[in-house]
Each structure stands twice: as structure tokens, then as C-alpha cells.
Design goal:
MetI-like fold; globular; 364 residues; two-stranded parallel sheet
Length: 364
């Protein structure tokens, strides 16, 4: 198993390189980059550029790049703009260097986990990610935990009660829940439970209250959970269907196999057969989908929920960076989540061997 783990860990390096390289060159040739964004902001302003560009504007370069629009033959909207101004903007964003030089600099920096600074926010990318990480971890972990804790026992029960009323009604419930978009359900929860039209039981925004630091330890835990109820409920509503039905079908497939009949014929109890034999085999396919499910919930699945409940998480950060062409934030988010996905995939393989010792990746 040790040699297999070493091979998998070494495989992480070329996988990360391939993904980052492909996305780097795709984004670089796409129109509407940071320089284009700045030139677009400069349109319609009659003030002198040099005065504003050299003036104090804090850490946000977007606040200082205001001038009359023009065209230098390279960027859209730069009509009549002084080439020196364009050169200054390119230097501001690091586009004064050749493409290949920027590419190799990025690879060297990312190898050292140096993600640089955001082009538009005035903070380092690491600081931005650290600020948003608690929100995304909270949403991702609680959502994944609740979905798995509910779906796996429910799927097992549905397999044992196949084609009964319980099976039919629970299937209907989870499919209806899956058909409801999470953001619409979030709006409904706000209307009903957050002071919209009925009761005001839960907070509308934020991860914690304003007086969080003044609360006791128990008060902080309760306050945190109080804020998590509505966004997590909105996210889990559509997550039960696929995992529940996958668990049910896996158990149904195993129940009818010969080794189950043999175990029953030997007089083993139903619980021993179910959890000692069937569970290990049926759970393999469920475990295989955990890394993708966790990363999906952790990142893309929470973006709309973060917007609705005013939660500044990584999903919202990545979306805003994409719209602004904030390349350091885009590439850093891609790099980190790809790395997390690869590591979770390795952990998933290790879990295979714990559940079913017959699996030996080393021999394969």
C-alpha cells in the first residue's frame, strides 16, 4: 500500500500542472482581461489620467485608473489613449512581461504556495481565502454530514422495504426535494422563518452575531448553530435524492447475491448479514462519490446560498474574481480546490481498504 500511496501522491504533481497550464492559456487568450476592465472603467471620465493614476488611492488600483477612453490598437475602448498610459496599466497588473515569463513565474510561485495579491481587492490571495474559508467549511461540512447521516440509513431502510408504502412515499419526498432549487427554497425559508412575512426565529445574514466576542463558549456555539440553520437547510434539501437512491440500489444489488443467501442459510442473524457483509460491499460505490460531492458542496454548490444569506465564502469569491478577471484569485482557487479534490480522492481509496480488506490497490 505504501508504494501505491507514493505513486498517487507523485501523480498529484503532473495533474495540478496540467490543469493549471490549460486554464492559464485559455484565460490569457480570452477577451476582457484586467487591462480591458481598467480601460472600460476609464471611459466617460474627463479628468486627467496622470493626476489620478499617480494620486493616492489606497491598495485598490481600480480607484486610481480613471481617464478618458481611447484606442491604442490593442485593447478595446482605448481609442486615442496615450500608449504610455496603456503601458502603465499593463505594468500595474504585470502584463508588461511576455506570456511565457508570466507562466513560468506562476508555476514557480505556486510550487511555493505563493499566490500573490488580488488585482482589484488590495489584499493577498491567501488573506482573502483565509477570510472566506470559515464560511465555506461550515456550509460544506454541515451539509455533507447531514446528507450522509440521513441518506445512508434511509437508503438502507428503503432497500429492506422495497416496493412498500414507506419506499414509495420516501422516494416521492426526496425527488420532490431534489426538484426544488436550493436558492428558491432559501427565499422561502427567509419569508417564513427570518422575519419575511411570518415568524422571526432565525437571523437573516452573517455567520455569527455582532456581539459574538462577548458571548460565553456555549453562547458562541449556540449562536453559530443558530446562524447555520437556514443556509444549511436550504443546501441539504436537494441533496438527499441521489445519495439515498444510490445507497438503496447498492444494497438491493448486494442483497440478491449468493454470499448473502449462504450467510442466511448458515443461521446468521439479519443484523450480522446486513452490517457484517452487505454494508461493506454496498458502501464502496457510495464512498467513491464522496470527494466530488464534498468539493461540489464546498465550492460551487454554496455560491447562491452565500449571496442570499450574505455569507462571504469561497464560492462567492471565485465567482466575483471570474467576473472581474482577477487572475490571481481565479488560479489560486482552482489550484487549491484541485489539490483538495486529489487528496480527498486518495483518502477515499484508503477508506476502500478499511471497509473491504479484500481490495488491494498495490497488486493493481
Amino acid at each position: 500500500m505504501g508504494a501505491y500511496l507514493i505513486r498517487r501522491l507523485l501523480l498529484v504533481i503532473p495533474t495540478l500542472w496540467a490543469i493549471i497550464t490549460l486554464n492559464f492559456f485559455i484565460i490569457q487568450v480570452a477577451p476582457g482581461g484586467p487591462v480591458d476592465q481598467m480601460i472600460a472603467k476609464m471611459e466617460g471620465s474627463d479628468a486627467g489620467f496622470s493626476e489620478r493614476f499617480t494620486g493616492s488611492s489606497g491598495d485598490n488600483p481600480g480607484a486610481s485608473l480613471q481617464a478618458q477612453g481611447g484606442d491604442d490598437g490593442i485593447y478595446r475602448g482605448a481609442r486615442g489613449l496615450d500608449p504610455e498610459v496603456i503601458a502603465e496599466i499593463e505594468k500595474q497588473f504585470g502584463f508588461d512581461k511576455p506570456l511565457h515569463e508570466r507562466y513560468f513565474n506562476m508555476l514557480w510561485d505556486y510550487a511555493r504556495f505563493d499566490f500573490g495579491d488580488s488585482l482589484f481587492r488590495g489584499n493577498s490571495v491567501i488573506e482573502l481565502i483565509k477570510e472566506r474559508l470559515p464560511v465555506s467549511i461550515s456550509l460544506g461540512l454541515w451539509t455533507t454530514l447531514i446528507i450522509y447521516v440521513v441518506s445512508i440509513p434511509l437508503g438502507i431502510r428503503k432497500a429492506l422495504k422495497h416496493n412498500t408504502r414507506f419506499d414509495i412515499w420516501t422516494s416521492t419526498a426526496v425527488i420532490v426535494g431534489n426538484a426544488i432549487p436550493s436558492f428558491l427554497f432559501a427565499v422561502l425559508l427567509i419569508i417564513v422563518f427570518a422575519g419575511g412575512s411570518y415568524v422571526d426565529w432565525f437571523p437573516l445574514r452573517g455567520l455569527v452575531s455582532d456581539n459574538f466576542d462577548e458571548l460565553s463558549l456555549l453562547g458562541k456555539v449556540l449562536d453559530y448553530l443558530w446562524h447555520m440553520v437556514l443556509p444549511v437547510t436550504a443546501m441539504v434539501i436537494g441533496g438527499f435524492a441521489s445519495l439515498t437512491l444510490l445507497t438503496k440500489n447498492s444494497f438491493l444489488d448486494e442483497i440478491h447475491k449468493q454470499y448473502v443467501r449462504t450467510a442466511i442459510a448458515k443461521g446468521q442473524s439479519e443484523g450480522n448479514v446486513l452490517y457484517g457483509h452487505i454494508f461493506r460491499n454496498a458502501m464502496l460505490i457510495v464512498i467513491a462519490g464522496f470527494p466530488a460531492a464534498f468539493i461540489g458542496i464546498f465550492f460551487t454548490g454554496s455560491m447562491l446560498i452565500e449571496v442570499i444569506f450574505s455569507l462571504d465564502g469561497l464560492g462567492l469569491l471565485g465567482f466575483e474574481a471570474t467576473m472581474q478577471r482577477d487572475y490571481p484569485v481565479i488560479f489560486a482557487s482552482l489550484y487549491i480546490f484541485t489539490l483538495l479534490g486529489l487528496i480527498l480522492s486518495i483518502i477515499s481509496d484508503l477508506t476502500y481498504t478499511l471497509i473491504d480488506p479484500r481490495i488491494d490497490f498495490e497488486q493493481r
